[in-house]
Write a structure and sequence with these properties.
By secondary structure, the chain is of the alpha/beta class. It has eleven helices and 15 strands. It has a six-stranded mixed sheet with strand order 5-6-7-3-8-9, sandwiched between helices. It has a four-stranded antiparallel sheet with strand order 11-12-10-13, with no helix packed on it. It has a three-stranded antiparallel sheet with strand order 2-1-4, covered by helices on one side. The protein binds adenosine-5'-triphosphate (ATP). The site of adenosine-5'-triphosphate (ATP) has 11 residues, from β2 and α1. It comes from Lysinibacillus xylanilyticus.
């Protein structure tokens, strides 16, 4: 169990985290999603005590908190943060890094070979890390955290620089760790992947963490019907609105239009499909709102390229 109690972090006038309270349970994978510079790393740094909160505290099992150095030592025996590529020693091999981490956390040394095999690192793990590619270094950093075998694992952009096969391999390992009862907290911009594997996903909004289910009621449930149409012309949207005034239409920054179809309007489906096809709009699909859609709905870029929170971003599916 991990409980965040009223955490506020302020850097000068910048309130990055604003009175956040939440609990994470064993066997949960938590996704943190937000544009750059919104507080994901700060949040994890507070959980590690690398950043001291302006207010609030983090409570771990047995009521342990970072109230003194000796508690911090105890907590860091079961909480770890994935190392950064810049933490690697170029003159040491991958295996030496893994031995170092497994020894520091006094975990089972058998985990080293198991992890090397699971991540297909056998052909390079005995070479010095100075010779590794970006993806090889990233896999090693992930492997280093896995061999710590800690109960709580935090990862900032774990999938950075990995090809799709390695993203899947790492995801499967995370699922296994989750099944072992670990709490896994991941900050990531790989939204499809997060959506597939995370149990709960939070978006950062003005220093708060907002559950995706609060943004769209029932987001994580598959029954919501949405029609996703690519590049619909404005005049088609206008006609659509006139013919089907009860359908809610949203256009996202990525050019995708989402048409939300409440169950009460399900009978409209075939006439609506004909409407699109008659206008030569054939690039559409039925499905649910994806995390990518939700991200585009929730944040938009301002003129300086900074992501801002959108106004009126709450969709209510209540029928
Ligand atoms: N030590 C610090 N002193 C002052 N401001 C800081 C400090 N650390 C972070 N910040 C500010 O806090 C905000 C959040 O930064 P943080 O690194 O947590 O963002 P992030 O969401 O992890 O971003 P990214 O996706 O780019 O990694 C930024 O505005 C950043 O400038």
């Amino acid at each position: 169990m991990l409980e965040v109690q009223n955490i506020t972090v302020q850097f000068g006038a910048n309130k990055v985290l604003n009175d956040i309270s939440m609990t994470f349970e064993q066997g949960e994978m938590i996704g943190l999603v937000a544009p750059n510079g919104t507080g994901k790393s700060t949040f994890m740094n507070v959980l590690m005590n690398y950043v001291k909160p302006t207010k609030g505290k983090v409570v771990f099992k047995d009521g342990l908190s970072y109230s003194n150095k000796s508690n911090e030592v105890k907590i860091h025996q079961f909480v770890s943060m994935m190392p950064d590529q810049s933490d690697l020693y170029n003159h040491l091999s991958g295996r030496e890094h893994l031995k170092m981490f497994a020894t520091m956390w006094q975990s089972d040394l058998k985990l080293i070979d198991e992890t090397i095999e699971a991540l297909n690192m056998g052909h390079y793990v005995n070479k010095k890390t100075g010779t590794y590619s970006l993806g090889m270094r990233q896999r090693l950093c992930f492997a280093m955290q896995i061999v710590t075998n800690t109960e709580i694992m935090m990862m900032d952009e774990v999938m950075n620089g990995l090809d799709p096969n390695n993203v899947e391999i790492i995801s499967k390992i995370l699922v296994k760790k989750k099944a072992e009862g670990k709490i896994i907290i991941i900050a990531s911009h790989l939204l499809d992947n997060l959506e597939k594997y995370a149990d709960r996903i939070f978006l950062f909004n003005k220093g708060k963490l907002v559950n995706t289910n609060q943004v769209i009621e029932g987001f994580s449930q598959a029954h919501i019907k949405t029609i996703r149409v690519k590049n619909m012309e404005d005049h088609t949207k206008q006609q659509l609105h006139e013919l089907f005034p009860n359908l809610e239409l949203q256009t996202l920054t990525n050019g995708m239009s989402l048409i939300h179809l409440p169950s009460s309007e399900a009978s409209l489906l075939s006439s609506f499909t004909s409407f699109l096809v008659e206008r030569n709009v054939v690039d559409f699909a039925f499905g649910k709102v994806t995390l990518n859609d939700l991200y585009s709905m929730y944040y938009h870029e301002d003129r300086n390229g900074d992501s801002q929170l959108k106004k009126n971003n709450h969709i209510n599916y209540e029928e």
